[in-house]
DNA sequence: CTAGGGTTAG
């Protein structure tokens, strides 16, 4: 039985890889017993194959499987292959195991499912069926991996949940698998609900469970819970692994408590590049670009080598704070001093940096001159700059091209529609919205979360007149009142924004009367103690109309209102915003 | 040889 050749094996391996290949061959030829076969294989898979793992492992496998001593091949060996090979080869190893009429054991499926998790949905369901057939589906290791695999391979939360519901639910592993599944599927609110239930059931969260809940906090801006988790970690003496600290830093910073994030950072015995990056990103979100740059410099001084992600952090920090020349300098440093080749994300940061600062032409020139072809994200960020800086001509050109290239992407239509709205070209704007409707493309709904007494409430845009509950009516009445107060402070609707939202072909009630952040703020004003700061997290970027309204609401109600949107924090106080209207 | 988690441009 010869392991089928991979198409890319046809190509000669790079010379360093080729030498390794020769060594690998020589080793395998000397193999004569099962134990030495295993030893050699493990060695090859784990260490010797770094230079070109896929080619060399495929090579090793084909050699092993065409071995003149087939009796050496047992389940243990196949498990090793399934565990160590890249996912597609792991799957093939599993089918070879079956073809050889070997029986999978209880290690086989956890390994197999882990491989399935990073592949499209099909294999996960097949592996599940197979685990059922061989009687391993109720094994807790298999269940936990199944939950993970379903959610990771296809965001199939329903299947993950089905498995979860049939488990005994007594292990924190099972719960964090399900909590993680929710977060991955964009259901962080459900993740927090699960966390509550977990505690009600008396299952003690361990370090990994805490990490998975923290990522839900990051998502929803659940500051109180993030703080509670930090205290919980101290109290229950959960080991403060670097990963746990990094998750704490990330969550506290993304929830707006830069001080606490910094404190966790300072307490760490050894800070990794990830810890620094989490702090830098947090400062960037606050518009504290200078400090973010300072932290980056401190990292380099401390001898911690920046990686590509850290550079994304420092570049976005510069971009969001209008530090154009500073940012360009770091972009140069990345290559010249650290010898790193910028990726699309880095080029994207530069385009965004120039565009935000109003240098639309320079940004476009840069985007065209990039050595890699700019992707849709880059063009969209440039189009956004065109909208803000009054270059509808360029914005329109980009928008139309993006729609032609990727007709199923909602954000392209929204972008072009907004460009038209900004220049009051309602006719064209209407055409874009109708085109979107005809093609069945739906705009990602806006959603805002607010935490009251540790409980997170989520709001969608609405109020266009549906018959809701009494509580809902109360909130909408509060929005009306809030807007009256804002008007008294000088608010006037930003027409381009309001009209940008009108949905065609959605019925008359389709016009979303209030964006979710206005509703969330009203709810928080109703439910939180007088004078307390209001914190809202939104999944999209705040629009100019809400931005203006909330500034004045903060003044009228003498409240500090902290709104985190997709790109940064806005701290509204006394009628001004910490972003200085640059965002 | 078994499971869940861990920073990433707009």
Automatic annotation (TrEMBL):
<feature type="repeat" description="PPR">
    <location>
        <begin position="241"/>
        <end position="271"/>
    </location>
</feature>
<dbReference type="Pfam" id="PF20431">
    <property type="entry name" value="E_motif"/>
</dbReference>
<feature type="repeat" description="PPR">
    <location>
        <begin position="272"/>
        <end position="306"/>
    </location>
</feature>
<keyword id="KW-0677">Repeat</keyword>
<dbReference type="InterPro" id="IPR046960">
    <property type="entry name" value="PPR_At4g14850-like_plant"/>
</dbReference>
<dbReference type="Pfam" id="PF01535">
    <property type="entry name" value="PPR"/>
</dbReference>
<dbReference type="InterPro" id="IPR046848">
    <property type="entry name" value="E_motif"/>
</dbReference>
<dbReference type="InterPro" id="IPR011990">
    <property type="entry name" value="TPR-like_helical_dom_sf"/>
</dbReference>
<dbReference type="InterPro" id="IPR002885">
    <property type="entry name" value="PPR_rpt"/>
</dbReference>
<feature type="domain" description="DYW">
    <location>
        <begin position="490"/>
        <end position="583"/>
    </location>
</feature>
<dbReference type="GO" id="GO:0009451">
    <property type="term" value="P:RNA modification"/>
</dbReference>
<dbReference type="InterPro" id="IPR032867">
    <property type="entry name" value="DYW_dom"/>
</dbReference>
<dbReference type="GO" id="GO:0008270">
    <property type="term" value="F:zinc ion binding"/>
</dbReference>
<feature type="repeat" description="PPR">
    <location>
        <begin position="171"/>
        <end position="205"/>
    </location>
</feature>
<keyword id="KW-0809">Transit peptide</keyword>
<dbReference type="Pfam" id="PF13041">
    <property type="entry name" value="PPR_2"/>
</dbReference>
<dbReference type="Pfam" id="PF14432">
    <property type="entry name" value="DYW_deaminase"/>
</dbReference>
<dbReference type="GO" id="GO:0003723">
    <property type="term" value="F:RNA binding"/>
</dbReference>
<protein>
    <submittedName>
        <fullName>Pentatricopeptide repeat-containing protein At4g21065-like</fullName>
    </submittedName>
</protein>
């Amino acid at each position: 039985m010869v392991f089928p050749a991979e198409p890319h094996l046809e190509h000669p391996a790079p010379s360093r890889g080729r030498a390794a290949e020769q060594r690998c061959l020589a080793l395998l030829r000397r193999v004569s017993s099962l134990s030495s076969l295993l030893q050699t294989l493990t060695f090859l898979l784990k260490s010797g194959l770094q230079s070109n793992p896929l080619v060399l492992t495929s090579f090793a496998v084909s050699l092993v499987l065409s071995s003149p001593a087939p009796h050496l091949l047992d389940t243990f060996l196949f498990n090793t292959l399934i565990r160590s090979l890249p996912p597609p080869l792991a799957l093939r190893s599993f089918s070879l195991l079956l073809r050889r009429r070997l029986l999978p054991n209880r290690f086989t499926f956890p390994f197999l499912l882990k491989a399935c998790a990073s592949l499209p949905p099909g294999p996960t369901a097949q592996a599940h069926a197979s685990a059922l057939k061989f009687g391993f589906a109720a094994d807790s290791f298999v269940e936990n991996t199944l939950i993970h695999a379903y959610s990771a391979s296809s965001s199939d939360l329903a299947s993950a949940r089905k498995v979860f519901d049939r488990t005994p639910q007594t292990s924190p592993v099972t719960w964090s698998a399900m909590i993680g599944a929710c977060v991955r599927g964009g259901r962080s609110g459900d993740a927090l609900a699960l966390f509550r239930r977990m505690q009600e059931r008396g299952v003690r969260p361990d370090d990994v469970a805490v990490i998975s809940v923290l990522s839900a906090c990051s998502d929803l801006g659940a500051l109180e819970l993030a703080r509670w988790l930090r205290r919980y970690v101290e109290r229950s003496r959960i080991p403060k692994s670097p990963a746990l600290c990094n998750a704490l830093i990330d969550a506290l910073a993304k929830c707006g408590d830069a001080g606490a994030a910094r404190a966790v950072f300072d307490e760490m015995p050894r800070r990794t590049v990830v810890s620094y990056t989490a702090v830098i990103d947090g400062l960037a979100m606050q518009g504290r670009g200078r400090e973010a740059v300072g932290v980056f410099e401190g990292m380099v001084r401390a001898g911690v080598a920046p990686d590509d992600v850290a550079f994304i952090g420092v570049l976005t920090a510069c971009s969001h704070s209008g530090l154009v020349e500073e940012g360009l300098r770091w972009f140069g440093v990345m290559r010249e001093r650290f010898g790193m080749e910028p990726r699309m994300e880095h080029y994207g940061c530069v385009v965004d940096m120039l565009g935000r600062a109003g240098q639309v032409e320079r940004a476009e020139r840069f985007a065209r001159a990039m050595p890699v072809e700019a992707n849709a994200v880059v063009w969209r960020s440039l189009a956004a700059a065109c909208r803000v800086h009054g270059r509808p001509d360029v914005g329109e050109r980009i928008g139309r091209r993006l729609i032609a290239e990727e007709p199923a992407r909602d954000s392209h239509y929204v972008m072009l529609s907004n460009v038209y709205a900004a220049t009051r070209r309602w006719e064209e704007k209407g055409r874009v919205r109708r085109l979107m409707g005809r093609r069945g493309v739906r705009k990602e709904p806006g959603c805002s979360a607010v935490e009251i007494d540790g409980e997170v409430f989520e709001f969608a845009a609405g109020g266009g007149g549906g018959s809701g509950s009494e509580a809902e009516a109360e909130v909408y009445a509060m929005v009306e009142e809030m807007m009256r107060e804002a008007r008294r402070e000088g608010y006037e609707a930003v027409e381009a924004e309001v009209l940008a939202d009108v949905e065609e072909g959605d019925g008359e009630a389709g016009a979303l009367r209030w964006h979710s952040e206005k509703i969330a703020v009203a709810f928080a004003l109703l439910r939180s103690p007088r004078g307390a700061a209001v914190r809202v997290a939104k999944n999209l970027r705040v629009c100019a109309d809400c931005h203006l309204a909330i500034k004045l609401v903060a003044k009228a109600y003498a409240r500090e209102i902290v709104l985190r949107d997709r790109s940064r924090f806005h701290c509204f106080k006394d009628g001004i915003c910490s972003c200085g209207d640059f965002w």
